[in-house]
Amino acid sequence: MIKNYFRIAFRNLTKNRMFTMLNIVGLSFGLVGFIFITTYVFDELSYDRFHTQADRIFRLNTHIHIGESKMDMALTSDVIGPILQNEYTEVEDFTRLYTSAGAKLIRKADKWINEANVAHADSSFFRIFSYQALHGHLDHALMEPNSVVLSRSAAERYFNTTDVVGKTLETNDAGNTVYQITAVIEDMPRNGHFNYDLLFAMENAPYRNWGELLSHNFTTYILLRNATDRSLLETHLEEYVHKHGLPAAKQFMDVTDIETFRQDGNAFHYDVIPITDIHLRSNLRGELRPNSSFQYVYIFSAISLFILLIACVNFINLSTARSANRAKEVGVQKILGASRRSVAGQFLAESLLLALAGIILAIGLVAWSVPLFNELSGKEFKINDIINFKSLPLFALLLLFVGLIAGYYPAVYLSAFNPLQVLKSHTVISSGKSVFRSGLVVFQFTISIVLIVGTFIVTAQLRYIQHKKLGYERENILLINDYHALGNQTKAFRDEILTLPDVKTGTISGFLPVSNSSRSDNPFARETVMTPTNTVQLQTWHIDEQYIPTLNLELVSGRNFSVARRADSTAVILNETAVKHFGLGEDPIGQQIHFQFGDGMESYHVIGVIKDFNFESLRDPVTPLGFFLGYSPSQAAFKIETSDLPLLLSRIENKWNKLAPGFTFDYRFMDEAFDSMYKSERRMSRLSLTFAAMATGIACLGLFGLAAFMAEQRSKEIGIRKVLGSSVTGIVAMLCKDFVKLVFIAIIIAVPIAWWAMNKWLEDFTYRIDASWWIFILTGMIAVIIALFTVSTQAIRAARANPVDSLRNE
User: Fold this and answer.
1) If you write DSSP's letter for every residue of 584-611 in order, what string do you get?
2) Average pLDDT over residues 296-311
3) How many CB atoms lie within 10 A of CB 670?
C-alpha cells in the first residue's frame, strides 16, 4: 500500500509541474537558510570545546574602577597565577599568555616576515590546552628559554616540511634572538578564542615589570581540580585581593585597607569565566581575538527556525491553493471506498516526496553556495563541515519534520472533504477566507517585516558609525606597521617621506585611535597624595610633536608639544574628559597632575587641552586621555594627498627598502583599520539582509499560493462580475484588498516587536542612532508593495480569464 501511495503521489506531482516546482523551490530555499544558520549557530557554540579539560579551564579577569574611570580587562598581573596555585588547593595548574609585544619579525633567508599570530606561553600551556603534536614532545616543549613551538602552517611556511624539531628561527627580539624549535603542532582549530602559529617560551617575553601586582599585561588561565570549584575559587579571589592587593594599592594611594579603596564606588576585584563562554559572553579590554555575542546566537537561531516555519507555511498554502482541483479526486476515492486515513496517507506521501526533493535540491544549493556563505559570515566552512555522515540524521529529521508537519494540515484538510458535496459542486464550499490560512500569511509577513526593519537599523547604525565625526582625521592617513624595524633610522625615514610632495605630515607613535594599537593606563591624581576619591585612571599615550597636526586634532586651549622646550618632557596635553575628571576647572593650563610609583612621584604640568575624540569603539564612551612627549616607534602615520596612490606607495616602499632591507613594507589605511573594529556588525548586517530577503521571498511564494487559492475559490464570482460589467481593474482591486488587510495586520504586530528588539541591540553602543519612525513606515510600504506585486499577478490572470470557462458548469 505504501508503495502504491508513493507511485500515485509521484504521478500527481509530475502532472502538476508548476505546483510541484513552487513547492520544491520554497522548501529548498527555506532548508538552505535553516541549514546555513544552524551550522553558523552550532559553530559559534562550539568555541573552545575541543579541549579535553574545557569544563575545568577558566580565564581570570580584572576589574579596576577608580572614580568614573573603569578598566574591565581580560588581563592580569604575572604573579596571580603562581600565587593562586601555591595557596589554594582547588587550583591544579595555571598558564599565561603574553601578547603585548605584538607581532614579531621572523627571518626567512634574506627576508624578514611579519608574524602577527605569535605569543609567549608558560611551559604548562600544553598541560592545560589540548593540541595535537606532529613532532616533538609537548610536555616540556617550552620549558627552556629560547624555545619555540610552531604550527603546521608556520613550519611549512619557513621550512616546507613539518619535521623541523631541532632547527632554529631568528627573530627581531633584542639582540636578534635565535629560538630552537622544540615541537610542531597541528594548526590550532579556528573555533578557539585564540589562534597562534608560533608560541615562544615565557622566559623570553620582553616584559619589564615582573612581579608588580597592579601591572596587568598577561592572559591567565586556571585549571581547577573540579569544575564545581568555581564558587570556591571566586571566594578565594576576594581573599587574594585583601591579602595581596593592599600592598600594591598602597604604591599608588594612601589607603590602609581595600575597603577604604573601595569607597565612593571604586572597585578592585577579579572574577573568572569558563573558556567555553569567552567567545560569546566576554567583551573586555585585552581580548585575544574579537569575540561575538550570545545576542547574535539568539537572533540567528530564531531566524533559522522562522525561515523553516515560513517554508512549511508556504507549503501548506500552496497545497490548499490547489485543493479545489483535487476535490473531485478525493470525492471519487471516497465513493469507491477509500477511508479518510488512506486519503490522508496519499497526501502525506506527496508531502514526503516533495520534502525529499526539496532536501536534495537544498543540499545541492548548500554545496554550491558554501564560498558565498563564508564571505557573508566571515567563517571558513568547507562542504564536508556541513554535509557529512554526521549530518545524515539531521537531514532525516528534517525530511520527517518538513514532510509530516508541512503535510499534516493539507492531508487532514483535503481528506475531510464530503464526497457528495465536492462531486456536486466541483469545489469545496468555502469563502476562501480561512482564519487559519490568513493567520499563516500574517505570521509570514510579520517575521519578514521584523527582519527587514532589523536590516535597515543595523545598516543605518553602521552608516552612522562610518560617517560620524570622531574628532580626528581618518581619511587619507597611511599607517606603516612594524616601524621599529627601521631601528635608529625611524626619524630619518620620516624625514625622507616628508620630502615627497604628496605627503603632508607624519608622526611616529604606536598609540593610534584604531584597533591593534598600543594602550596604557595609569592612575594620576591632582593632589600629590593619591586617595580613592581623587585618582583618575588615565590613558597615557606617548606621541611626538607632529601627532596632533597629522590627525588634525583640535586644541581647545593651550599649545602643542615642542621639542625645542626641555620642560615639555614633563608636560601633558589632556582631553576634555580628563580635565573634567581631574576637576581642573575652566583654566587647566599650568596646573599639575601627579603619578606616584612606590616611593617616587612624577609631576606633569598641563600645556594644552584637546577636544574629545573617539579613540575606542563607539560602543564605549570617551575616557580620560593624556598625551606625553615620548617615543613609541611601533607604528607611524602619514597624511597624504595624491591622485596616484600606487605611485606614491611605490616611492615610499623604495625608501623603506633602502633603510630597512629585508623587512617587509607592511601598511594599512586608518579608515580601513577603523572599519575593522565593526566586523561582527557588518557580518550581522549582511546575514540579516540575506535571510530577510530569503524569508520575504518564501513568504511571497506562500502569498502567491493563497492568491491562487482565492482566485480559484471565487472564479464563478469573478465570472458573474465580468458578465455584469466589472472591469479588470475593479476585480483586481477586490482580490488584492483582502491581502493588503493581512499585511497591515502583520505590520501592526511586527512594529512593536522590531522596535523592542532593535533598541535592545542598540543599547550596546554608547553612540547610536534612534530607531526612527520613517524606518518602520518605509518597511511597511515595502511589505505592502511586495504583497501587491505578488498577489496582482494572480489577480490579473483571474480577472482576464474568460467568464464562460468558470460558468459553463452552472
Assistant:
1) --S--TT-EEEEEETTEEEEEEEEEEEP
2) 83
3) 21
